[in-house]
Amino acid sequence: MTRDIRKEVIAEFEERRSKLTRLAIIIGIVVGAVSLMAYEGGISKAITAIFLSGSFVWALVVHVKLWRCPSCNGHLGRLSLVLKLPKFCPHCGIHLIEIWD
């Protein structure tokens, strides 16, 4: 595999990871705001429950669609709460982060 293809895969992986990070931040802020409004009595608890469930399902779908290898499109597995990144794809073995040669 050429070095240029590896660099493209690494760049695409970084782009996808960045998108997931931004989406997680946005979802966290919106869910926090809706929860606060429900706590303060601004919206009903039923609407809050529906919204939070929908947010969870949406986040799961985004995770399944974006957390894939840019080379083989295989799913990269679970995201860890400690933000441990996969170094390589478990399916095709391509490096996903920059490795010093």
Please, could you describe this protein's structure?
The chain has 101 residues and is an all-alpha fold. The chain has helices spanning 3-40, 45-66. Helix 1 (3-40) packs antiparallel against helix 2. It is elongated, with a radius of gyration of 18 Å.
Please provide a brief summary of the model.
59% of the residues lie in helices and 0% in strands.
Largest β sheet strand count, sense and barrel closure: none
Secondary structure category:
mainly alpha
C-alpha-based Rg, rounded: 18 Å
Total of DSSP H or I helical runs spanning 4+ residues: 2
Q: Outline, from the CA principal axes?
A: elongated
Number of separate strands: 0
Share in β-strands: under 5%
Defining traits:
elongated; single chain; mainly alpha; 2 helices
Topology, pairings included?
Layout: H1 3-40, H2 45-66
Helix pairs in contact: 1-2
